[in-house]
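Interim report to the steering committee. The following record documents the input for Transposase IS4-like domain-containing protein (61 residues).
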Amino acid sequence: MRLVSVLWGKTWYRYLTNVLDPEELSAQQVCELYRNRWQIEQAFLLTGFEQSSSPNKPQIA
């Protein structure tokens, strides 16, 4: 595992990745991937889509 630490303003953000080579995946790319993932999450929240891990709710395949 590789810990990627990024200072944004006055706040440090830390991300874990299994890509060990920084030339293969830079800290900037890690941030961009996380930002893209978060935008997808926000889109799901805006559309009201919720996938629950609860055994009482049906799962979407």
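The beta strands are 2-8, 11-17. The committee is asked to note this result when reviewing the revised timeline.
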